TrEMBL record:
Pfam families per record: DUF2254
Stretches that traverse the bilayer: 20-40, 64-90, 111-132, 144-164
Name used for this protein in its record: Uncharacterized membrane protein
Family matches, as InterPro entries: DUF2254_membrane
Keywords: Membrane, Transmembrane, Transmembrane helix
Length: 431
């Protein structure tokens, strides 16, 4: 039962990133709320409101139907316009910054909730309008229901004003970078907190039994708690082979086990791997480095030529690299008592991460002295930071040397070359 609920949790977490998630929830709420209000009408809600505050009640069926019809048509137009604005935002972000930013923008809760409010109100007004009957001596116009529909429409107008404000902010690259940075920082801080002072020696796993993936997709996340429980039941230890964020074809080795496992245990472990068709920064901090790197590269491309954006992105990249230097390359997960290491989780090494980040930046920015100077200051700053492994400093030195050597080869101005030599001296690097 525990594993079933965990799978439901993982499924819901993936579902939340879809643009239709919150609108669907609000639509269902609008339908059931309309039924609830119609039920209150049968109990005499409109009659009570007519006696208490007659000015708030519409007591003419044609007028009530006209009001609801105007609300429905107006809200449909607003929803179409709002959805079009979201599409414009996604298109501009993909063309000007990076297509990899789209999953994060689509999963923006604010846009989804606003579209959901529109949809819930439209569905509510449609069902309430269906309850309005031709006037008769014994018929009571559902004035209370109409009043609620008018209030919901006013709420939609307020949400539309907020949407215009939010969409104008979301399209700005500074806010996009800030969102990516905050998501990656939270993820890295969570991983650092889970590591704490843990230091362990995990045995060699060359002779362990491998088990393979039964489906393909991006390795998004896994439930360490459930897998640790299975390891405890089976009296074994496992190593997670793929790196989070990598694409897993069918038949790829997924984990190694110290002891051979039965089919039921293997299926339980594999069910706790979340494979999808997309990536999110909240689940994989490495994606933040890729996104920021692509923003820098796109900004420095001849078609965009926006060094200001590249400089801003380098500031965020510096902060994230300094935070990553405090984390070890491999992560471990303990049992409930916190004594025995049950799971070893591989991650992108700091050296590989730096190479993936700086290689494309070096290719596109080696001719720009301002970017070179900024990156040089980044290396100087990183060498002064607290690090989980002294080998990280050698990685910084190697990347700095590659960057400065490429800059020296592509820049001919004497003043610019002098700036590069000064940075090399500060880093104690020979070029």
């Amino acid at each position: 039962m525990k594993y079933f609920f965990n799978r439901i949790f993982i499924w819901l977490k993936d579902l939340r990133s879809k643009i239709a998630f919150y609108p669907s929830l609000f639509a269902i709420f609008g339908f059931f709320f309309a039924l609830f209000i119609i039920y209150l009408e049968d109990l005499g809600a409109s009659k009570y409101l007519l006696d208490a505050a007659p000015i708030l009640v519409v007591d003419n069926g044609n007028t009530a139907l006209s009001i609801l019809t105007a609300c429905i048509t107006g809200l449909i137009s607003m929803m179409v316009f709002s959805f079009s604005m979201v599409m414009v935002l996604l298109n501009q972000s993909a063309s000007n910054y990076s297509p990899r930013l789209l999953p994060g923008l689509i999963s923006d809760k604010n846009h989804q909730i606003i579209l959901g409010i529109y949809l819930a109100t439209i569905i509510y007004c449609i069902f309430v309008s269906q309850s309005i009957q031709p006037e008769g001596n014994s018929y009571q116009v559902p004035g209370f229901s109409v009043l609620i529909g008018i209030l919901f429409t006013v709420l939609c107008l307020s949400a539309f004003i907020y949407f215009i404000h939010n969409i104008s902010q979301s399209i700005q690259i500074d806010n996009i970078l800030d969102r990516i940075y905050n998501q990656a920082r939270k993820r890295l801080n969570f991983l650092l907190e889970s590591e704490k002072e843990l230091f362990t020696i995990f045995p060699e796993t060359e002779d362990w039994t491998q088990y393979y993936s039964e489906k393909s997709g991006y390795f998004q996340d896994l439930s360490s708690d459930n897998i640790a429980g299975i390891c405890d039941e089976s009296a074994t230890r496992i190593e997670i082979i793929p790196i989070k964020g990598s694409f897993i074809p069918r038949g790829t080795p997924m984990f190694k086990s110290e002891k051979k496992l039965d089919e039921d245990a293997v299926n339980k472990i594999l069910s706790n791997f979340s494979l999808g068709r997309g990536e999110l920064v909240t689940q994989n901090y490495v994606l933040a480095f890729k996104q920021i790197t692509e923003v820098i590269v796109k900004a420095m491309s001849p078609g965009i030529n926006d060094p200001g954006t590249a400089l801003n992105a380098l500031d965020y990249l510096t902060e994230l690299l300094a935070l990553r230097m405090r984390k070890r390359d491999d992560s471990y997960f303990l049992d409930e008592e916190g004594k025995n290491v049950l799971i070893k989780i591989r991650s992108v090494s700091f050296g590989e991460l730096c190479y993936q980040v700086f290689a494309p930046i070096r290719a596109y920015c080696k001719h720009d002295i301002i970017i070179l100077q900024k990156v040089g200051l980044m290396f100087i700053f990183l060498k002064k930071q607290k690090t989980a492994d002294e080998a990280y400093l050698k990685v910084i030195d190697a990347e700095a040397q590659n960057f400065l050597e490429d800059g020296k080869a592509n820049i001919k101005n004497k003043t610019d070359l002098h700036t590069i030599r000064n940075i090399a001296e500060e880093l104690n690097i020979k070029i």
